[in-house]
Amino acid sequence: DAVMSVKASALIFLLQVFGQSWSQNRPRPNIVMVMSDAFDGRLTFGPGSKFVQLPFVNYLRELGATFLNAYTNSPICCPSRAAMWSGQFVHLTQSWNNYKCLDANATTWMDLLEANGYVTKMMGKLDYTSGGHSVSNRVEAWTRDVPFLLRQEGRPVTKLVGNMSTVRIMGTDWENADKAAQWIHQRAASSEQPFALYLGLNLPHPYKTESLGSTAGGSTFLTSPYWLEKVSSELITVPKWLPLAALHPVDYYTTYTKNCTGSFTEEEVRRIRAFYYAMCAEADALLGQVIAALREIRLLGNTVVIFTADHGELAMEHRQFYKMSMYEGSSHVPLLIMGPGLKSGMQVNQLVSLVDLYPTVLGEEDGYFSKMQHPDWVLSEYHGCNVNASTYMLRSGRWKYIAYADGLSVPPQLFDVTRDKEELHNVVLKFPNVRAHLDKRLRSIIDYPEVSTTVHLYNEKAFIAWQHTLGNNYSKVIGSLRWHVDWQKDALANERAIDKWLSDSL
Ligand SMILES: *[C@@H]1O[C@H](CO)[C@@H](O)[C@H](O)[C@H]1NC(C)=O
Ligand SMILES: *[C@@H]1O[C@H](CO)[C@@H](O)[C@H](O)[C@H]1NC(C)=O
Ligand SMILES: *[C@@H]1O[C@H](CO)[C@@H](O)[C@H](O)[C@H]1NC(C)=O
Ligand SMILES: *[C@@H]1O[C@H](CO)[C@@H](O)[C@H](O)[C@H]1NC(C)=O
Ligand SMILES: *[C@@H]1O[C@H](CO)[C@@H](O)[C@H](O)[C@H]1NC(C)=O
């Protein structure tokens, strides 16, 4: 396998395909992107995951290029997708949380492809515009600076359904994959124009925990024996955890609000991980539906197929599930690309992120992609729920530097991801020069204290506006959100904490 470095020809290829510089004397290829939710990018590494069978991910890797260092620009659904579709970092579009992302009329690369003569179609989960997700989700994001600590999520659990013949569990995803396959067949028969198809999957995002009521979040890892059989449960390891007292303060807030501070048996953790991997296997089969459709009508040869995800899933690494974290399980996404002119089995070391999928970066003069040379760093940021300080990750070389808030009030973290794959050794005090260098670099890319201030102000303003719409119902409504069990233990004190937060900031 050819391991490519800085000037990753695959990336340049990708940009050329998306941009207008595709060679005139060659037909423009079709473009098909399958974006799953919550797929841990590390599962795509060669020679293939030892934990779970992912035949279609493996197929893409063997025939195309695998990006070994691909990251989300924000480890949560909507902001991540906003970055992917707009090609801009989330602070530039102010995509602060699952509720506040792009305007519905924002220009995406799909729009540009359409303007350039492509027939385009988007199917399944999109989730990049403002206004979506639960009220709990947005209120938790706005109030993350309030100094109270409330459990918001259900404790992660597993649920086994069906039997060895139960294949289609995530029904909506299967319907959408069927529609995508149908659309591919129809397109191929009817049009001279190249097409671009996007299919967004829900899997392997955990399911809503029904027993916790209508406001519950998704903390149920659910699968059937059919998919569980694709997992080598005996190989699954239990991730090491730091003791609770040694967690970074922001991680402690995250673990607490995700309801993971209680004790877990090794068996329980292994089972959650096995179920998560089984859900990845189902996602892989959905990708397979699309690949099979292209193959059936002999379009695979002139179609660029891309598989990626909005973020990963911690699956109990760092004593957490879900994402919202800069640790690898959450921030490292899959990026596999196969297409005409692209060498088989290429592994690309270049650091890339979802903003790189945007087409017009080629034409822009802001220098980001000057001379088609990608910078040797990746920026990811997080401003949403379950994390009580804006978070900024700079990946560069072997380092992952994580700065918070104004850079002073919360200690930063530094990990050598090549040597400390589990990210359990924060070496920020051991390498002050590296820290200083990376912090300076980060500030040259983003004025992060300033961005954090902007988010604080937005949070207060958005919260007050929401409060006003509730009138006399405020106490009842805020007390019945996802955190209601803990809230009700002292509703008055919690309301007072919010009042104080608002008055302190005036
Ligand atoms: C999109 O809509 C917003 C209002 O929601 C408006 O301010 C903006 O000008 C519109 N942008 C475009 C490109 O039409
Ligand atoms: C947190 O988990 C416990 C079980 O460990 C459960 O009883 C409780 O309902 C969960 N809290 C929330 C808010 O879901
Ligand atoms: C599996 O479940 C389906 C649907 O509930 C049922 O029809 C079928 O008989 C079951 N098969 C076996 C082998 O138990
Ligand atoms: C975040 O929450 C943790 C746990 O309550 C607390 O120790 C820490 O001070 C908080 N950090 C900020 C910046 O509010
Ligand atoms: C408060 O709730 C009641 C009952 O659900 C509803 O009729 C009323 O319109 C609400 N008031 C406001 C200001 O939302």
Count of DSSP strands: 15
Q: What is the overall shape?
A: globular
Helix content: 25-40%
Poorly predicted runs are 1-13, 15-24, 359-371
Broad structural category: alpha/beta
| Widest beta sheet: strand line-up | 1-11-3-10-9-2-6-4
Arithmetic mean pLDDT: 91
Examine the secondary-structure arrangement and name the CATH architecture of one domain.
3-Layer(aba) Sandwich
> Count the helices. How many?
16
CATH topology of one domain, what is it called?
Answer: Alkaline Phosphatase, subunit A
Termini separation: 59 Å
State the CATH class of one domain. Alpha Beta
Radius of gyration: 22 Å
**Mind telling me the CATH superfamily name of one domain?**
Alkaline Phosphatase, subunit A
Query: For the report, how would you describe the main beta sheet?
Result: 8 strands, mixed
How much of the polypeptide forms β-strand, as a percent range? 15-25%
Hetero compounds: 2-acetamido-2-deoxy-beta-D-glucopyranose
InterPro entries: Alkaline_phosphatase_core_sf, GAG-degrading_sulfatase, Sulfatase_N
Cofactor: Ca(2+)
GO molecular function: arylsulfatase activity; glucuronate-2-sulfatase activity
Protein name: Sulfatase N-terminal domain-containing protein
